[in-house]
Amino acid sequence: MPLFGSTFSPKKTPPRKCASLSNLHLLDRSTREIELGLEYGIPTMNLAGQSLKFENGQWVAESGSFTGDRREMQRLRKRNQQLEEENNLLRLKVDILLDMLSETTAESHLMEKELEELKSHSRRRK
């Protein structure tokens, strides 16, 4: 039996109102753009004197805005290719050196084992 009267019973909460009283979320995209002015256009930026625009998921130089030297671009591409080839060659050399190291280590362990066996065999003879 409760000490101070009835058991705890909270009041029922009233039903919630609609989250948005606006009907703009019911409109299609083009109508919302007209109503709310959401037409921003293509994103653009200016980087190191070069104007770029974002199209199809990539930043692309706007036509006629490239002020850099085409020869410089070709030189950089060629240098990049050379560095990639050098990097691949160095990776191959590292792999070969690791293989040589593991082979030499295995041979060394075998020789140490044989030496220990010979020492123990010679001790038994004495």
UniProtKB/TrEMBL annotation:
One Pfam family hit: Chibby
PANTHER family: LEUCINE-RICH PROTEIN (PTHR21533), PROTEIN CHIBBY HOMOLOG 1 (PTHR21533:SF20)
Coiled-coil intervals, chain numbering: 66-121
GO cellular component annotations of the record: nucleus
Signal peptide: none
One BP annotation, GO: negative regulation of Wnt signaling pathway
Presence of the UniProt keyword Secreted in the record: no
Keywords tagged on the record: Coiled coil
Keyword Nucleotidyltransferase part of the UniProt annotation: no
Protein name, as recorded: CBY1 protein
Organism ancestry: Eukaryota, Metazoa, Chordata, Craniata, Vertebrata
